[in-house]
Each structure stands twice: as C-alpha cells, then as structure tokens.
C-alpha cells in the first residue's frame, strides 16, 4: 500500500495508489478506464501509447486517489512495462472474451508480473471485457482454471466480466481492487470523479 501526502490535501486525509492497466491491443483498456472515470464510451479505436488518469474517490474522512497508467497493448517497451509493474499497488489485467489470443497474452503478462513482483506480490483484478458481443472464445472454466493456477498468498486474483460499451460491471473493477488495497474501508457507492493528467497538474509525493 502506498500512502502519499499531496499538495492539495490540506486538512483531509489523502491516500494515493498507483494502478496499472495492462492487456493485449484493442481489448478495451482505455474504454474501461474512461467509462469508469468519466462515463463515456467511443466506438472508434485509437491505440494508446501510454496515458495517465487520476481518479478521486471521496470517502468518510478523506480522499482516495487512483493514479492509473493506461498501458499500450502494442508498442510497449519491456523496460517501461517492468517499471510500471514494479511501482503498481494494484494491477488490472484485461482480455477480450471474444479473443483467445488476448487471453493467452494475459497469461504471458501474469507470468511477467509474478516474476517481477515475486518478493512482495501485488493484488490483481482480471477483466474479461466485451461481454455485450455474446461471442466467447474464452470460457468461464478457462478463467476459473487460470485464477486457481495463479492465486497465492502473495498474488490475490479477482475476476470480473464487463462491457465498457454497455457499462456492465465496470465500477466493479476498481471497487474490487480497493477491497484489496483498503480492506478496512470498502468504497462508498457515491463517488466524485476527476480526470486530469496528474503528471502535469498535481504534485504527489509517494512516501
Ligand atoms: N463491443 C464492445 N466494444 C468495445 C468494448 N470495449 C471497447 N470496445 C471497442 O474496442 C476497441 C478498442 O478499445 P480500446 O479501449 O481503445 O482498447 P485498448 O485495449 O485501450 O487498446 P490499445 O490502447 O491499443 O491497447 C474500440 O473500438 C472500442 O470501442 C466493449 O465492452 N464492447
Ligand atoms: Mg488504449
């Protein structure tokens, strides 16, 4: 768990978490983040190089900030990916239910995460997206087997099936992560969202 004091904090308690979202190209990582943080969805596809979002959740007694890295499905440098895995307090791994290839890519990413974080572990939420298509190349049994194989004391895995398009279960992704990161204080239903490039606009000192 990473706690930080931000310049904007003043009197309220503020906790920041670094979150990383990985997955094969075009599985819907950006769509899920934008659906979750700003409530919008776009049909057109624009590949991500790397983007950052800062998402605030108001809680009793303070604010939780999810500083989220939206990683590239293609064109990601291995060294950058390793750095992002190293600093993440929680990881979201997305595949598309209609793409067996993206599920295999997710397993490859899981192997890398487990190697990089072998010492301290990290909580992971696995997301099967594009449920609205009703085309399945990945069965529930495939996913159950994967979760069983990779779960351990250090690596706790949860699974959510979503549709960024239909806004199905999208809010579950980050609330599941928060149950790992802040088990004593489950997120309140009502939350206030802000979106901006935190690198440019907010100074956040991770301690
Ligand atoms: N039907 C359907 N389409 C989706 C869904 N989520 C995303 N898409 C579409 O899939 C395409 C890719 O979505 P992105 O969110 O850009 O995918 P990405 O994983 O961020 O892709 P990269 O940035 O290249 O890694 C876009 O055309 C989206 O509109 C979904 O839940 N259902
Ligand atoms: Mg993207």
Automatic annotation (TrEMBL):
GO CC terms, sorted: plasma membrane
Main location (coarse class): membrane
Superkingdom of origin organism: Eukaryota
Signal peptide: none
Annotated localization: Cell membrane
Record keywords, A-Z: Cell membrane, GTP-binding, Lipoprotein, Membrane, Methylation, Nucleotide-binding
One Pfam family here: Ras
GO molecular function: GTP binding; GTPase activity
InterPro entries: P-loop_NTPase (IPR027417), Small_GTP-bd (IPR005225), Small_GTPase (IPR001806), Small_GTPase_RasD (IPR052236)
Residues spanning the membrane: none
Membrane topology according to the record: Lipid-anchor
SUPFAM superfamilies recorded: P-loop containing nucleoside triphosphate hydrolases
PANTHER family, per database record: MIP08469P (PTHR46149)
Family indicated by similarity: Belongs to the small GTPase superfamily. RasD family.
Listed name of the protein: GTP-binding protein Rhes
Organism of this sequence: Pocillopora meandrina
């Amino acid at each position: 768990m990473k706690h930080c004091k931000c310049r904007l904090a003043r009197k309220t308690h503020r906790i920041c978490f670094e979150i990383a979202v990985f997955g094969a190209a075009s599985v819907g990582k950006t769509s899920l983040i934008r659906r979750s943080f700003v409530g919008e969805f776009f049909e057109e596809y624009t590949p991500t190089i790397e983007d950052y979002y800062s998402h605030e959740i108001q809680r009793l007694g303070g604010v939780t900030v999810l500083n989220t890295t939206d990683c590239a499905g293609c064109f990601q440098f291995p060294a950058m990916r390793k750095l992002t895995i190293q600093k993440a307090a929680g990881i979201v791994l997305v595949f598309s239910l209609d793409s067996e290839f993206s599920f295999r890519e997710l397993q490859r990413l899981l192997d890398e995460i487990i190697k990089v974080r072998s010492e301290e572990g990290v909580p992971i939420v696995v997301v099967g997206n594009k449920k609205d298509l009703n085309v399945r190349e990945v069965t529930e049994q495939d996913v159950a087997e994967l979760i069983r194989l990779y779960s351990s004391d250090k690596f706790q895995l949860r699974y959510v099936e979503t549709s960024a398009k239909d806004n199905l279960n999208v809010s579950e992704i980050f609330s599941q992560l928060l149950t790992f990161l802040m088990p004593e204080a489950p997120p309140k239903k009502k939350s206030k969202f802000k979106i901006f490039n935190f690198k440019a606009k907010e100074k956040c000192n991770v301690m």
